[in-house]
Amino acid sequence: MPPTALSPSSSLTWSLPPQHHHSDLVFMWKLAQKLNICSGVVAMGALAFGYLTLQLGFKPFLEKAQLQQQQREQEALLQAQSDFSEAQNIADDGFNTAHTTILSDGLPKSDHKL
């Protein structure tokens, strides 16, 4: 019986027929590397194509969402500024009220007479 690539008696171990030489194995290895590189390039191209498709397909929706986000941020900033100015006005009013209760001699008003 001539030797085969997978002999039944080898319990699933690979054996090369005697006509294969080292140069054939090197050639097959280099070919496999080239095929793997080509597969990687094709996969990267497919990912890039998919990304661009999503960007172009959803561009109107993405722009609308970005505008809404910017509007929310501006509204929040304006609200924070108005809250700050309102708090500052309240603090100023409190300071003015406390300042008017002090008499000209530097002592606070008192209902108690000595």
From TrEMBL:
Which InterPro entries does the entry link to?
OEP7-like
What transmembrane ranges does the database entry give? 34-54
- Write the record's keywords in alphabetical order, separated by commas: Membrane, Transmembrane, Transmembrane helix
Name listed for the protein in its UniProt record: Uncharacterized protein
